[in-house]
Amino acid sequence: MNLLALLIVTSLFLLWNLEFIATLLNLKSFPATPPIELEGLMDQEKLDRARSYLTANSRFDIIRASVSLFILLAFWWLGGFSFLDERARSLSESVILAGLIFLGALFLAQNLISLPFDWHETFVIEQKFGFNKSTPTTFITDRIKGLALAALLGLPLAAGILWIFHVVPNAWLWAWAFVTAFQLILTYLAPSLILPLFNKFTPMPNGELKEKIHALGLKCGFPLEGVYEIDGSKRSTKANAYFTGFGKHKKIALFDTLTEKSTTPELLAILAHEIGHFRLGHIKQRLAVGILQMALIFFLIGLATDPNGIFSRQLHDAFGVTDISPHAGLVFFTLLLEPASKLLSMLANAWSRKHEFEADAYAAQSTGTPEALATALKKLSSDHLSHPTPHRLRVVLDYSHPPLLRRLQALKKANVT
User: What amino acid positions are annotated as catalytic residues?
Assistant: First the structure.
């Protein structure tokens, strides 16, 4: 237990306490009566259900975070990282294969630990409040597909990173370029190769809605290659929509739960909001910042895996591991980065909330009816039993979208010509 280990342990406990305080404050900020803005969509009975839903999820999140922290610290202090590293090295003379065994074992352990929590969240909490439509078969099949994809995509990616750090000079720079290229290719291929593994994409039949969607796309300078409906209802009653694709190959994906619950003007307003993110350059901005952030992270990983570095030696000593290696350094650096990651996510969320306000204004301007988007947001919030007035600390920590009431206030001030 050196000073670096003490710093990591202290930061993990501080983060846990921060989340605990934010959870309590968020529960306390729940309104006693429905906000006037949700009149007609959320009565007292539904508000009480939303409070119960928030309480159930908050308790569950605290328990999950506490168990995860306890298991991590117990594994660490009992010499688990050292044992696993030595065992992986004993199973293979190849440093790459040994590294994959080390990383794969931790990945599988994490998935096994999260499995009962995911099951409880799906089949107890979501089921109790009427959201879950997933069957045990679907749940298990999704996990198997996820593990298969992780093996198919994650193992080559991890092997490439480990090989670069073992062999290539200026490894952090080449690892950054390799991961960036991999992510861009995956983003391009995901809509056609990966997403259909989990959901069925059905082309929207010809009709008034499809015509108006294409007309909106042309009006906004957003060419569409296709409009699809997703069978989201087989897992949840919650609704959603998103865009995929690069360049001229853009597609709209609407959850069937969204099309069932929304009017045509509301759907067009939601889609105009998503188009706004593209037209205002939000996607490109986030991509560029993400790539630069990844460069900084890989530069620091280079320091954490340097076989002759003082910092990497102290980092490995903190976890009781004798031999400095890229695979161990990656894991240890991730734990060390946890506080900084939280700070970066808070900044990213604040930036994202700004973008959401801008996309809302774009939707109001392009459709000429801010009321349609406002109504759609109200419906989604009410149907999802969302917190009407979340505490400021919870918003700062976790919200990538502004709270509903603030979005509605901004929409009232939107200029429509």
Answer: 274, 360
